[in-house]
What we know:
The protein is mostly beta strands. It contains no helices and four strands. Strand 3 (40-42) and strand 4 (49-51) form a beta hairpin.
Amino acid sequence: MENNKKKKKGQRSVEHFNHFRCHVCNKWWGIGDPPSERNIWFCPWCGKEQEFEES
């Protein structure tokens, strides 16, 4: 039996994933493809606002 169906192709992409560590509660979290101009973030664990340097 001949298979005339075309194979579907998947999609591939690249993600830049940033890791953050809170200076208040000391917990880690990550964000994929964050805006590069942003350096003020809120910790999702304790809610404290903090500034992060680019690495």
